Structures are given as C-alpha cells and as structure tokens.
Amino acid sequence: MPTSLSDLKNAGSAGNGFSGIPEPGSVAEVLMFKKLQERFPLQFQNIFPDKLAPRTVVIIPSLTMDPEILAKVSGVNHYEERLLCMLMLLRMPRTHVIYVTSETIDPIIVDYYLHMLPGITGYHALRRLTLLSCHDSSSKPLTQKILERPRLINRIRDFIPPDHEAHMSCFNVTALERSLAVRLQIPIYGCDPDLFELGNKSNSRKIFKECGLLVPAGFEDLKSEDDIINALAELKKGNPVLRKAVLKINDGFSGDGNAVFYYKGIEESKNQKQWIRDHLKQQLKMVSEDLSYEMFLQKFFVMGGIAEEFIEGLRKESPSVQCRITPSGEIDIISTHDQELGGESGQVYIGAHFPASKEYSIELGILGKKVAASFEKKGVLGRFAIDFISVLEKDARPDDPVGRGWKHYAIEINLRKGGTTHPFMMLQFLTDGRYNPEEGLYYTSKGHLIRYYFCSDNLKSEKYIGLSPHDLIDIAMMNDLHYDGTSQEGVMFHLIGALSQFGKLGVVCIGSTPERAREYYAKIVTVLEKEC
Hints:
Low-confidence stretches: 9-15
Shape: globular
Oligomer: single chain
Strand content: 15-25%
Number of strands: 20
Number of helices: 16
Number of domains: 4
Radius of gyration: 23 Å
Distance between the termini: 42 Å
C-alpha cells in the first residue's frame, strides 16, 4: 500500500458531507464497493455501445504507488497528463469528462488535445469538460490528495449530471481508488484492489508458470537479506556461466524498483554464498540513480520481491502484449509492442514500437490470451500488460506464421495502464481502428489502411529546459509537427507540462510504415535541437 488508510479515516465523517459512507479500509466499504461494481456490467452493456448515451467519465490519472519510489521519477506529477488522450471521449456529443490532477494543467495543453476532436467544436467539448486540481505538487499519489480534500470530492459529485451513468477510469486501482469510488458512489472500470497483488513481481512468475509460459530461472517471495543472498547463490549454482541477476521489488514502477547484481569476481571464491554476502552492496547496481542501496533494501524487505537470472542473447528484444477483460468477461488482445529499454542493463522503459515485430507478434497474442484466461477466472477486470524478454535462438523462417525460433520469457504483469496504454489509445481515438491479433497488424476505420507508431515518454534534454507549452506548440506548428487527420499520419505530444522544468517530453509518431513513424521522431529531435 502506498499510504496508510488510517490517515484518511476522517474523510468519512458526517462533518465532511459523507454521512453514511463507511470508513476507508473497513469491511463495510469493501462490501459497498462490490455492490457498485455489480452495476457496471449493465452500464457497459447499455451505455458503452451507444455513442449518443448520456454518460460521465471521471478520470483519476493517479500513479498510486510507493511515494518514495515515485519521487525518484523526474516530473512524476506530469505523468498524470498521459491520460489526456481520454479527452477524445468528448467526440461523443453527450459524454462529459471530469479530469482531476495534482496541479493545474495549462489551458493550451487542453486546447492542443481538443483541436483533434473529429466533428466536434472546441466550444462544444469545453462545455462538457471539467478540469479540477488539488493544487498540490507533493509526491503523494493523486488519489490520496483527493481523499484528503472532502470538498473537492463533493465538487466532483456535483459535476456529474443527475441523468448520467458514470464510472471512474484510473491508471491503477488500489484501496485508495476504492475509497474514492465509494465516496463518489460510482464504479471503476478496473481491477478490484483485492486482486491487486496478482500483478506484483512474485505473483506474476507464479501465474506464468501456472499458464505454462517460460520464465527466467528465479525465486519469488523474498523478504530478507538472507533470502536475497541464498537466491543469488542458487542462481549461480544452477547456471555457472551466469554473469548477472536482477532483483525486483514486488511493486516497482518503470524499472525504478529494480537492481542488477554482477557476479564478476565470484569465480575466485571458494565459498560463493559468502562472497555474495561480502560483495552485495558493492556489486548491486540500482536502476534508479537516486535510490540508495539502503533504501532499496528497505523497500525490498517491506514489499518483498524476486531474484531472477539476467537473460542474455545475441539478438534480444523486449516485447509486451496489452490485454483487456471486459465487464461481460470477453478477452481482447489490444496491442503488442517492442519496447526500447535503457538505464542499468536495460531495465527502464524508454519507448516502444507498435506493433511488435511480425516475427512474433501473433505468438505474443496467443501467450497473452493464456494469461488473460487465467485472470478472467480470478475476476480481473480492465486493461493489463505482460512484458517479455524474447531471444532468437536460430533464424526464424520467413514462412513461419508464429515466429518459432524465438524463445519468449515472461517477465512481469502490469495490472494497470502503462507506458504503452496512452499511445495506443491515442491512435485508436484518432483513427477509430483496431488491432488484429491474428495478423499482428493495426487497421484504421478506412479498412485497408495499416498504421504503425513509435512512442516515447523520455524525449529529454537539458537544452529543452525553459521551453513552455506555448513555445512547444508554436515550434510544432511552424515546423509541420502535427497529426494530419486526412492522411492519418503525424505527431502527437504528451507530458507537455514537464518540458519547461524537467526538459522532458512524450511523443507518439504515427506513420504508414515503421520507418516513416521513426522518421517523424527523428524530425522532432532535429527540430528541437535547432530551436534550442
């Protein structure tokens, strides 16, 4: 849990306008939440297919994770802007959107998204959009900030028209989001927080093995220094040529809860376990540069974690598959990506190509469906992604439809939205198309048009510091860096609010070929270098 629910008990008092609402974390609250969720399948069945149905979507883009780990992510509060792609829901003329953030979003950023709406004027969309802010720049999760502000919760409720069906859309769902849903008296399109632990690193490995997927050699449910040392020793014993192993905190984010252990020098020792004990601090390299050895171990011991071998290979890729389980129990393979990773030994998400390589994208969909089927039986709802490490052991045959020759190691499950969620949602909103998992291709609504993209949350440079959102929009317009609805190609920016202070920006580059998508990205980098 990112914070103690006991800190929020007073939010349920009658003095704050929540008479009859159970206390956060109580059994009564859990039961009330389950009753709210029981309403959602009917809403999904009756409202979602009807583009003219009156509805309100309350978007809570909170990264509800450990605040100390989140504080290490540069410009973390601006990551709440990644779900601004959901403003595209306003293309449905009777849909209202309530979007809550930690800090106020610059109006030009909102205008930048709204000008993409097909068939809807900005004026019409703005009448149905409510932007609310906590005015709180701390690293606490957004949902916690909202729960600490009962009057803000009342304002959210007041902005939901009485004749509208409403639901919450969140980045991830924890006990805090459950408390907020109960206070708002609306369901969440997401997984019950009682199932949240299914997506941690230890349980991911267990589910992969249960589904018959290949996993790296490793150990789950580690909680002490002795556990870590024993696991690292056993990994080396089982694979004497192993050069590196990875430690992962169960609830780490974007690789920042990972560390890489190097076995270099262990060959000279007669007692390998003692050597690991003596050299643990020296040989363990944290992925997050701001996370100390002591803090990493402290978080590891509190949350638990895993140790697994570092997969090597002459040709190695890091694909992922996004899945969705609907309220009616249907399983969708939404997308596949080839991720670009950086940081310590390639543990940090940098960007991604969509779709994943045609050599194995179909197979990824098949593997993802196995995990999704297992999750559906466990009651999981909503989006999640599965990350793999894929190694080519021999040349894949061109006529092989599922890329045999690739060995896919399932690495982890992200039981939430992630870094590849918002780029795909943007593509889908802009082109009204769908991914065909049986072909590994994405088709626009025009049927015959295939689209690809390259996306990144980490286009950054110290040279960009000082560029305001207004500057970026001006640069984009002057250099033809925008999305063209006629050709269904071009560029969309996100994380725009992080640019001035952190020199950091997100992009989605959509093209008719993978090469064209990458060319757009190269053009962005060239233009920004010139302008800065």
